[in-house]
Structure prediction request, 703 residues.
Amino acid sequence: MSDHQTATTHATNNAARVAAVLAEVGASPTLVRIGQGVRELRPLVADSTFVQVRLGCLSSFTFNPLMDAMWLQGIRAGCNIEAYVAPFGQFERELIDPMSGLATSEPNVVLLAVRLPDVCPAIYEDFGSLSESDAIRLVDDWTLRLKTALMSFRARSQVPILVMDFESPVTPALGLADRTATPSQLATITRANQRLHGLSREIPNIRIMEYDALVARRGRMTWADPRMALYARIPIAPAHYWSVAGLVASYLRPLLGLSKKVLVLDADHTLWGGVVGDVGTTGIALGPDYPGNCYVAFQKRILDLHRRGVVLCLASKNDEQVVLDVLRTHPSMILREEHFSAIRANWNSKPDNVADMARDLNLGIDSFVFLDDSPVECDMMRQAMPEVMTICLPKEPAELPGVIDALDCFGQFAISEEDRQRGGMYRAEAGRRSLQATVVDLPTFYRQLDMTLTIAIDDPVDVHRAAQMALRTNQFNMHTIRHSEDDIRRFMASKDYQVITLALADRFGDNGVVGLALVEIAPDAWTLRGFLMSCRVLGRTVEQGFIKWVAARAAQTGVDRLVGEFVPTAKNKPFAGFYESCGFTRMADPSAIERWTLDLKSADTTVPDWVRIVLKEGAAST
Amino acid sequence: MSHANMDKFKSAVSAILGVPPSEVVDSLSSESVDSWDSLNHINLISAMEQEFGVMLPTESMAAFQSIAGLKSLLADHGVEL
Prediction:
């Protein structure tokens, strides 16, 4: 092995170890883990490719305890932080004095961690004593002082300044009355934050960090440990050091050009539940109910990232055609072929595929993030390509959307028009036509909903959903016979039956498949052997529209009658009266089972004008 | 008596103060280790709370500044080393 190769292997091993340690610390960021991480990584990163940053930290509280977490989060973001931490409470002097410790440390980034409770304690501790003009004057005086200090610094230095915004109290001073009181404590703090944002527009290169949002996310109640706050003036509990440091690092990334650009996604157990190669396009978990809805929600979060400008790639161990089939035909897929800039569905190793896509896209692998449910694949990626940020997904599908919420590596300070256009916003545009908040009659309300019913007959894609509805629907259900997936498949295959499903979309989005009719076909009559509707779409005439469409179709084939039963149960009362409302007459029959019939010669089968009905293309028809 | 707890204790002290675990002996104190300053002592107490799932008295943030002291503090709070 040449010296060069030895050095390269050594660097890769180091980088792999760095990635592994960071993953361990991130999983459980206790003080001990953080301390161990720093001690282990410091010698490994000395010679390498991290961006060197001199970070000047100014604060109104004891800030030093956060610095180990800060250094590690910096490494995670790709920069090696060398920090100057000013004595707490001296931030104004540090900014103004050209000979201050801050000035002589020649920072390339300044962090201003000032808490409003430290500088304007009256707002937090004695709010009840303030008049409205007192509260306004306090905030305005304070922000003016801050502006003076920042401008004095700016006159000498152009380096970026990150400023923490101000947090709300755990409980407002005026309790429930706060928001409507004058002055209101929360409104006063909001005003202070608006002033901060004003400063960021008046003075160049200032970014306001969303500290209050972080406190809210992590939990305001347990944000501080009162003993640490009162004894040591550390207003952040040790359990949160990692996330505060993470917040700062998430702003350092776009500042230093270290934001990730590409998200590589696995397919099976990631974009959908199950292994598509085994269960086929119709068998994967993806749709309106658990667990399929977890994957839908996950995909929607990813689509949001895409619309912010994140490039999506797919790396799956599958035959390409199998994956493309899902992307192109599965009705519940949110992410489609056009959202992916590169797709590698093959049997090569994932590191090879990622390297290949990086070449195609002409983007560095250090701008890639890799998501996979398999710990083995994740480990392999960390070993082979430590520059890639690898995230191993949780086993519980409901936790998937939260993984995207927690990603802090794609930050950009501005969203370009091009980013915004991405992914097509047509549905959102349609939804944005604002609803008038006025009293309307029901037909007007129905018309405003802009409902489209998509009907499919014997469509194998719906097998799983149809069986699921048969199993779960208790309220709007003519009887509660539970048909299995195998039953549904048999009905679909049989000439004597039709399985008709109904999907509903409206201006607020796609509800997916919400209705099912199982029809037995005879020369003189169609008989409903199942008719049910998800109760979340009841009360907007969709159920009447559906049965009238079935009746009209039956009439077209020349039969005389549409027949249906109603078997009352403890739960299906919402179904009672349904046949009657659609013009059916009850057949004389003394049993508990009601039998109803619709004479198709005379029946009115016109569907209300506010529902548009589309028969799904390609679905089987009689 | 628990070896696991003792190991955990030693790695915790080592991680916070930067001394090797083998040097975490009873006689070690804030007098003999430069990195054992008042702030790191608070970190030590917080770390003990996190590692052993106990709540230690606020007074300990300025007392028990030796390994022997920390051990007796933990023993008083039900942690067997």
Confidence is low (pLDDT under 50) at residues 422-437 of chain A. Chain A touches chain B through 19 residues (CB under 8 Å). The first strand of chain A starts at residue 51 and ends at 59. The radius of gyration of chain A is 31 Å.
